[in-house]
Chorismate synthase
Amino acid sequence: MIRYLTAGESHGEALIGVVEGMPAKVPLTAEDINEHLARRWLGYGRGGRSKIENDKVHIYSGIRFSETLGSPISFRIDNGAYKKDRAGWPEKMAVDGDRGDVERVTMPRPGHADLAGMQKYEFDDIRPVIDRSSARETAMRVACCSVARQLLNAFGIHVGSHVTRIGEVGYDHPEEYLERRERLMKEGGAQAVYRAADESETRMLDPEMTERSIEHIEEAKAAKDSLGGAYEVIVTGVPVGLGSYVHWDRRLDGQLVQAICSIQAQKAAEVGDGFRNAARPGSKVHDPIVLDDDDDFARRTNHAGGIEGGTTNGMPVIVRGYMKPIPTLIKPLDSVDTATREPKPTRYERSDITSVPAASTVAEATVAYTIANALLEKFGGDSLPEIRRHIETHRAKTTD
Ligand SMILES: Cc1cc2nc3c(=O)[nH]c(=O)nc-3n(C[C@H](O)[C@H](O)[C@H](O)COP(=O)(O)O)c2cc1C
Ligand SMILES: C=C(O[C@@H]1CC(C(=O)O)=C[C@@H](OP(=O)(O)O)[C@H]1O)C(=O)O
């Protein structure tokens, strides 16, 4: 099993990550990771911080001559804001010494981790909560999960995503983007989907929807408000039989929903047409079993999102994520000063208007990690060649 840990405060010096359990001989370079770090900054609607950061990973261990060694892989990503912001972060986030005259933050923002976090850890200052709950952490998550993604790539399993909604602008039914998405998937799997989405400023597959979503973000900005949205993560090339129905925590659908909701501000997730299926009769939901041109089992449709009984059925895996609007608004919200208990409006310094395009790339990463572990659980081995032998034996069997 691959495990990872991230450490680091948003305005501290750097983010640190350690990935353990990665098999040996998987091709991996800093560039493979930096590509996805750059993609995480795509998307209209991000705030001032996006102009400051230039995320690049520094690899310390676990890789030699562009291949994994099977030993723990460790990374650092510097926080550009630490030095470039004029806020004095080296003093405010100092590891040594005492507080001195560093001011306490005492105005909690509704919707952020601020108040619950300070009550939980008994802080009289929100700063530590702001800094660790921040989605800045997702930069290191993307780095760690890109390692798992490399393992999947080696077996022709690809993960991609595209945004389906920003606030009020979005597709009402998957049919509206299905044709375009299917064509891309036929051409180049999930990779073709994410590359097409990356061309759009809001990571949408439809140019008209992109334009409308940009206008909507501008309207929200003018109204001093923020927006949420939705996206779809697709995995192509997935073998049959990952996950299981035999026990609750081995169900891959449950793990994938957690992979999405583990990301800051993601409040719902569905596998396949999950929400819509609840309102439809079984005859319009369950994907008919057919034989394809090679006499292999296939499905005529994919409302199940590639998973039945917690187990992959060979169709593309499809998971959708739903993000709430960003909690830091230019428009003040009602709150209470935790130091004086005086009701006061929140203060605004800097924030994204929306981060749905960024969240969709983080979701690719967490889904890749989940699928990579399911792959290792079934076909595990200590090196890429060993896993390949296990997969080939299985593929030969299932196509008999
Ligand atoms: C990529 C990304 C960027 C985000 N940017 C901001 C931001 O600029 N300002 C903000 O208040 N929240 C932002 N958030 C959301 C907060 O991190 C999140 O709402 C907060 O940690 C509380 O967690 P919860 O929403 O899961 O309850 C962002 C989330 C993601 C995924
Ligand atoms: C730094 C990132 O996102 C940050 C996530 C975030 C939050 O509250 O989650 C708040 C903002 O940070 P700041 O308050 O410094 O502007 C975002 O920019 C990033 O994605 O790398």
User: Anything to note?
Assistant: Residues 47, 112-113, 133-135, 138, 263-265, 324, 326-328, 351-352, 355, 358-359, 362 surround flavin mononucleotide (ligand 1) (CB under 6 Å). The radius of gyration is 22 Å. The domain at 3-398 is CATH 3.60.150.10 (Chorismate synthase, AroC fold).
